[in-house]
Amino acid sequence: MMKAVIFDLNGVIVNDEKFCQEAWRIYAPKNNLVITEDDFKNHITGSTNKEIFKYLYKRDLPREEFEKRSNDYLDIVINLFKEHLKPADGMVNLLDLLNNRFDLAVASSAYPRYFNYIIDGLNLRKYFKVLLNAFDIEKAKPDPEIYLKAASLLQVQPKDCLVFEDTLLGIRSAKAAGMKVVAIASTFKRDELGQADKIIDSFTGLTFQDLELG
Question: Of 2, 4, 178, 191, which one is least surrounded by beta carbons within 10 A?
Answer without folding.
Answer: 191
